[in-house]
């Protein structure tokens, strides 16, 4: 039983890594070279947060850091800043994961929405303070709104297609501790 | 029950929290280093992209092809009208081609008569677009040519028709082209027609605005925009597009390049522009050669203190 659980955790981690790479792959496809006036949702962030809120043991901090740093590098963002902010948010979600298990979904959504809004604005504020050129405000806000709206869709996909669901109330880990 | 779990947490969590804090600090530290010493971190970024993206290449080309095929499929429905349209356009173009060839010959003859020296032709290396920037905030594409093909930072990049962008970041096998629509792209241009200089400043829209025009009233719409070569970064005379006006009356550039379909790009080998930095030495040389200043010539030494000291040590 213990081995089965441990194996499940490691498959979960592998699965997160594969999903992250696949998302980056599809974002990099040279399909969209015209500038748009709306921002597509940040799917990688949503997947990371959905995992952190529902299956925190499948997204260890190092894995999140590696995935986000790779995306920072590949997507031409200032390296490290967004990674750090996302790490802070996933750690917050991880520490609330046990109490959030019994919450209805809209509250979880609200918490995640506030978190995404906070790190997006913090990212923008820090970039502005350090005089790094930032994207137009409208683009950031539309991306923020679309990202928040897309969270339930990502969670539904994760829940029904990948079975990323919250542990049941009485579930135990490999050492018999309650999750 | 819950108490047990918390008790166990109490001696793991402080260490864990410390390590997580360190990790976050490392990330912010990396960001600060990037802000202070950007070129070095950008080189690391180019190396990472160089290592990662070509590995995706085998999958990227077919997936992109399939997606484009599906989006093209809609246009097959009106293929007959398209064919007629193209034939009509071809007729008009043939007439233009004749005119262009006649003018070309005339031009060559006139140049010959004037004994005019032209700029050497630019040579180019052609690359395939591997990937785009992947984010709506950055307008750039990745090419499959890099330092191995001799590509250097700052070289202009064109598609068949017009300027697309410039090289910003070179890896071993890949290089990044910052498109003229990117918010950090600034290109000195000249508006033919009125001959005024301007800066083409990307702002994440498809038609970048023209900044710093001296007399905007003298600009006529549909004037051609070409690069001016000011600043010594870009070669001059590359076609950028035409002047258009947006609904706010601001002058913008309609790009000649088709940014919606970037597949093959030409990277122009731009020769370093020679600068004439020394003033003319014909009338008044700044430094007198040593042999020209005899040590006993008091009036010459009085005029120039540097020569006076030189004369003193010589004497």
Provide a descriptive summary of the structure in words.
- Chain A has six helices and no strands.
- By secondary structure, chain A is mainly α.
- Chain A has one domain (2-160).
- Chain B has 315 residues and is α+β, with helices and mostly antiparallel strands.
- Chain B has a domain at 123-269: Thrombin, subunit H (Beta Barrel).
- In chain B, 40% of the residues lie in helices and 21% in strands.
- Chain B has a six-stranded antiparallel barrel. Chain B has a six-stranded antiparallel β-sheet with strand order 8-7-6-9-10-11, with no helix packed on it.
- The radius of gyration of chain B is 30 Å and the shape is globular.
- Residues 1-8 and 297-315 of chain B have low confidence and may be disordered.
- Chains A and B meet through α1, α3, α4 and α6 of A and α1, α2, β1 and β2 of B.
Characteristics:
heterodimer, A: 179 residues, mainly alpha, 6 helices, 68% helix, globular, B: 315 residues, alpha+beta, Thrombin, subunit H, 6-stranded antiparallel beta barrel, 6-stranded antiparallel β-sheet, 40% helix, disordered N terminus, disordered C terminus
Helical amount of chain B:
40-55%
Largest sheet of chain B: 6 strands, antiparallel, barrel
Mean pLDDT metric of chain B: 81
Greatest contact pair?
A-B, 45 and 58 residues
What is the share of helical residues of chain A? Answer: 55-70%
């Amino acid at each position: 039983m213990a081995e089965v659980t441990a194996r499940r955790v490691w498959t979960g981690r592998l699965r997160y890594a594969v999903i992250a790479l696949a998302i980056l792959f599809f974002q990099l496809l040279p399909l969209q070279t015209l500038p748009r006036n709306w921002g597509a949702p940040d799917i990688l962030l949503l997947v990371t947060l959905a995992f952190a809120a529902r299956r925190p043991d499948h997204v260890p901090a190092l894995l999140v850091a590696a995935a986000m740093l790779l995306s920072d590098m590949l997507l031409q963002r200032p390296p490290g800043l967004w990674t750090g902010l996302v790490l802070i948010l996933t750690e917050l979600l991880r520490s609330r994961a046990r109490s959030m298990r019994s919450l209805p979904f809209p509250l979880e959504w609200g918490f995640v929405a506030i978190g995404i809004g906070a790190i997006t604005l913090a990212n923008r504020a820090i970039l502005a303070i350090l005089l790094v050129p930032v994207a137009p405000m409208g683009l950031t806000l539309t991306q923020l709104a679309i990202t928040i709206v897309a969270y339930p869709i990502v969670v539904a996909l994760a829940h029904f297609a990948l079975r990323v669901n919250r542990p049941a109330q009485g579930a135990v880990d490999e050492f018999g501790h309650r999750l | 029950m819950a108490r047990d779990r918390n008790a166990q947490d109490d001696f793991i969590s402080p260490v864990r929290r410390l390590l997580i804090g360190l990790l976050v600090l490392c990330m912010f530290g990396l960001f600060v280093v990037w802000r202070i010493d950007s070129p070095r971190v950008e080189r690391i970024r180019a190396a990472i992209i160089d290592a990662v993206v070509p590995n995706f290449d085998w999958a990227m080309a077919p997936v992109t092809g399939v997606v484009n095929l599906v989006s093209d499929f809609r246009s097959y429905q009106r293929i007959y009208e398209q064919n007629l349209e193209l034939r009509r356009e071809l007729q008009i173009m043939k007439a233009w081609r004749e005119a262009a060839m006649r003018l070309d010959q005339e031009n060559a003859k006139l140049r010959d008569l004037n004994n005019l020296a032209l700029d050497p032709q630019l040579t180019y290396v052609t690359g395939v677009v591997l990937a785009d920037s992947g984010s709506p905030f950055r307008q750039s594409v990745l090419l499959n040519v890099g330092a191995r093909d001799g590509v250097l930072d700052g070289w202009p990049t064109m598609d068949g028709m017009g300027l697309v962008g410039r090289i910003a970041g070179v890896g071993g096998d890949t290089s990044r082209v910052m498109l003229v629509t990117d918010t950090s792209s600034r290109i000195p241009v000249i508006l033919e027609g009125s001959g005024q200089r301007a800066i083409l400043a990307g702002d994440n829209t498809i038609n970048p605005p023209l900044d710093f025009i001296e007399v905007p009233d003298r600009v006529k719409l549909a004037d051609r925009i070409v690069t001016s070569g000011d600043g010594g970064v870009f070669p001059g005379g590359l076609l950028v597009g035409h002047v258009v006006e947006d609904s706010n009356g601001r002058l913008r550039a309609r790009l000649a390049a088709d940014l919606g379909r970037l597949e093959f790009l030409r990277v122009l080998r731009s020769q370093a522009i020679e600068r004439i930095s020394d003033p003319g030495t014909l009338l008044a040389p700044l430094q007198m050669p040593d042999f020209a200043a005899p040590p006993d010539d008091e009036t010459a030494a009085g005029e120039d203190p540097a020569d006076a000291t030189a004369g003193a040590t010589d004497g």
